[in-house]
């Protein structure tokens, strides 16, 4: 019978136990031993869950306290010198992840960006020419010993050397791949150690093989694996998130014993892979979707398994999810209140492993497994025709869209003049991105409201008080454009999904975004419509409390799409246009309520890019069009903002400009304004707010540091177009640090404003 396995399992725990343990440790309420014990407990629990669901072999070293790319950097001693003074390894690790500002140290965190086209954020390793690497830890070996002692057949997982370097950045402009020959011996030492521990297989993830690779990267792959050949364990080269395409011949020539391919994103590659696979190599088929929550369609998955088995037999065939299950919740059985019909259409991590088991058993002739697949076929057919999925009026609105729907009624110069007359803002206007701290008291009130212990009127009173507090603080700090603080919102996507038709929600469907930050993506299962205004009442209330302009805050259509578990029975472009129309209606209602500035956040625009450049234009065409549909009905004097963060925008700057927003705010503080390099070659026409405060770190930068960042921005940008703001929303921070940081930000802006006016 074919082997059933998986590439990785979610880390956070069914009830976010890792999040709670991390935050207790950071607050000083628990020690390193307690954190380590929570991590150990979760690893054992997850191995058992995977085995009991049907996995023959479980992964180890897929667990992380914060991020697996950061773990790899630390494992091979790629620790920037500035952090080493902390001494304690755990302090160094978390300083690299979150920054450190105490005990006489002031250390910003490493840069953070998106893991390929997912909403998972990884820490970007910081390297330099002449970097030395060494095996500086034993986590993969220790976890292998731990799993085997518990009775599990286990396979260590490593991020491959080429992908690690390509995902890194150098501080001196040198080429990261030039460090390959220095890095590979450390990998060899680790593989030798794993072999000594009895590892039969080691999974080495090289997701870079689904990207466009230049000759240097291809040569690096060949050189790296030639050097790693013969180290003892058999190597499984794991690729995912797309097709190997023109890298297939390279992957098939590498001296590895097995290859994993993603047949969910790229089912059409199977025959080419089978033809290229060396005669003795094992093939791991990623036939169950590791990125989404929909149960597998047997009519898509089973033929792939049958074709591969006919060529390879059982001994050389593994069946697995398409990628690590990091991107989906742990267990559907936790959802005791989910609608039974909808629940029947879904599969979370544990169920996806069981689906792989069922496919393996079915092709081996198990009648029970065959019957289970027949039942699943019936559910798939039911979902396609369910009344809750289909909404003709939503599809008719999309069909009626024309080119005029994507254009504002006036050009940027006209809008700029009208908006300047309307708002009278100073040079370098200050604002924030949208959210303010979600305090324990606010979260407790939300929980009480959901549990029925606090009635609607009582909860609304709490929210009005929070909004009033946010307005008072902003006025006292001297911000020029205010926000209402989003006290009513649990999450920037879930909040909107709760008010739109076509969405469903889980209670324990958490996935990791970064570190201890978890999100609960809504399930977008049907056609989208907006029954009523979603944000107007709170924005109107906030504006009534101040004479300064208050921004209306919306999450853009592409971001709602990207950060939901999206239906797979309709093209994503069509779903996004439905979302855009709902948001267009909301913009109109905000205008009618007297809100003159509306921010439509699109942090996921870059994240949604296809991994191959040849596919970019088609995506950008519809993604940009969807933003413009959402904003296109706004009057010329209404100022449209957007926000983007934690992704490299330099290579799509023309598409960002094509959004035709009046102002864009972006994350730049962790990269020390390096993201502004694009503005050297491309003259961005509208307003831009380069973030000067890293909100993902508890560290509070002083005014001089923020002023220095702004001065760098002004070397590239016209002062008339520059706004001053943090990198992102302030929801996860506490009020004392927020007030201190924003006071410094306003002071920096005022100092530079005075200097510019005087000049």
TrEMBL record:
Metabolic or biological pathway: Amino-acid biosynthesis; L-methionine biosynthesis via de novo pathway; L-methionine from L-homocysteine (MetE route): step 1/1
CDD domains attached to this UniProt entry: CIMS_C_terminal_like, CIMS_N_terminal_like
Enzyme class: transferase
Protein EC: 2.1.1.14
Binding site for 5-methyltetrahydropteroyltri-L-glutamate: 16-19, 114, 517-518, 563, 607
Catalytic activity line of the entry: 5-methyltetrahydropteroyltri-L-glutamate + L-homocysteine = tetrahydropteroyltri-L-glutamate + L-methionine
Listed GO MF terms: 5-methyltetrahydropteroyltriglutamate-homocysteine S-methyltransferase activity
Positions contributing to L-homocysteine binding: 433-435, 486, 601
Entry-linked Pfam families: Meth_synt_1 (PF08267), Meth_synt_2 (PF01717)
Active site feature: 696
Residues the entry annotates as binding Zn(2+): 643, 645, 667, 728
Signal sequence interval, chain numbering: none
Keyword Phosphoprotein set for record: no
Classification via SUPFAM superfamilies: UROD/MetE-like
Domain Cobalamin-independent methionine synthase MetE N-terminal: from-to ranges: 5-310
Residue sites binding L-methionine per the record: 433-435, 486, 601
Segments forming domain Cobalamin-independent methionine synthase MetE C-terminal/archaeal: 428-750
InterPro entries linked: Cbl-indep_Met_Synth_N, Cobalamin-indep_Met_synthase, Met_Synth_C/arc, UROD/MetE-like_sf
Keyword Ribonucleoprotein: no
Described function: Catalyzes the transfer of a methyl group from 5-methyltetrahydrofolate to homocysteine resulting in methionine formation.
Name listed for the protein in its UniProt record: 5-methyltetrahydropteroyltriglutamate--homocysteine methyltransferase
Organism: Coralloluteibacterium thermophilum
Lineage: Bacteria, Pseudomonadati, Pseudomonadota, Gammaproteobacteria, Lysobacterales
